[in-house]
Amino acid sequence: VPFTDPGERGPEAVTAIVEALMARIAGEQEPVVETSRLQSEVASVLRGMGHADLVEEHVEPKSAYTVDLWLPSEGVFIEVDGPYHFHAGGRTPLGHTRMKRRHMGQLGHRLAVVPYWDW
């Protein structure tokens, strides 16, 4: 199905999209996420180390960012960054990845990053 402007489908379509976004922002609707195998492995190791309070796909309420892993007892967020977070063939983070890291830091959060090449 080719992309069409929601306005071309009528005001009801626009209203439905806005309501879905507002519900997501308000936390009334869980985000649709896919957990990578790499992220699952990191989570499994952390649980094996005794971090039973580990939360996967945590939505940080101040920013609405979904963070891969959260250790509430340690006050640490963990991002497991696969190759799609970096420029092709390199280790330079893409803009959206850098921005998320910067925003999390500005909010006062401790953020640990596990890049795929370190795993």
UniProtKB/TrEMBL annotation:
<feature type="domain" description="RAP">
    <location>
        <begin position="76"/>
        <end position="119"/>
    </location>
</feature>
<dbReference type="Pfam" id="PF08373">
    <property type="entry name" value="RAP"/>
</dbReference>
<protein>
    <recommendedName>
        <fullName>RAP domain-containing protein</fullName>
    </recommendedName>
</protein>
<dbReference type="InterPro" id="IPR013584">
    <property type="entry name" value="RAP"/>
</dbReference>
